[in-house]
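Consider a protein example.
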Amino acid sequence: MLNLIIRNLKIFFRDRTAVFLSLLGVFIIFGLYILFLGEVTAESVSNLENGRFLIDSWLVAGLLGVTSLTTTLSAFGIIVSDRTNNIMKDFKSSPLSHKSLVGSYVLSSFLVGMIMTIITLIIGELYIFINGGTFLPLFSLIKVLGIIILSVLASSAIVFLIVSFLNTLSSFSTASILIGTLSGFITAIYVPMGILPSSIQFLVKLFLISYAASLFRQIFMEVPTDKVFQNASASQVVEFNKEMGVKIFFGSHYVTPLECIIILLVTIFIFYLLGLLIFSRKKK
């Protein structure tokens, strides 16, 4: 299985177009923020010191959630390509077990997601620092790395289930474009949560990666929030967190970090299980 994982990683990283497209959503969001969205969003806290630091942290945290999804999706393109080109049939005729074959694709996707999301983290931290912010404290950075693992696993599980239904490269390309386009909206990066209609807000809350984005934002924005709202009331901080999607609310109930983690863990278990069941049926 190790050789297959290495083979899948080589195929992905040799294809520069695939690597670029996996980060295309991130490039677009970064570009839009550098050109005008960053300034527009920062105007909401322009009267407060460290407002740009706060908004940049909010942006980078959301990007980590998007990257974990789009890069794992792009990595799973290999399984669709192998299926289309009948390469998977060659693997199935070999002594390699079905579980090892499927496991190699899943682990490859996870590793690609981890590598690309960590690269996004490094770029994001540099972006925040260049704009006058500060790097994450060491303990916060460790927590972020832990959430990256959780986010990539959840993204990989969701994509694994989606890819199990795709049999052609054209259908995979369509799914990639659709998910890549919607990811920025559904994680409330293009438009803050509070501005969205209530029906769209509910859809965002159903999008499970939103909970990973919420965890990232709470960690990234801890320091700038303390600086920006040091003289503000608790209700003002709560309203800002609700407006910007830092914390997810269902009515008056705030979804705690522990609840977010549980939601992601349940997502990983259910989606991987469903994906494996579908792949087992296709084997037959």
Summary: The mean pLDDT is 86. Strands lie at 249-250, 253-254.
